[in-house]
Amino acid sequence: MKNSVIATSIRLPIGADAILEKLTHDLHISKSKFIRDAIIEKIENALDIKAINDVLARNEKTYSMEEIKRELDLEY
Question: What is the pTM of this model?
Answer without folding.
Answer: 0.71
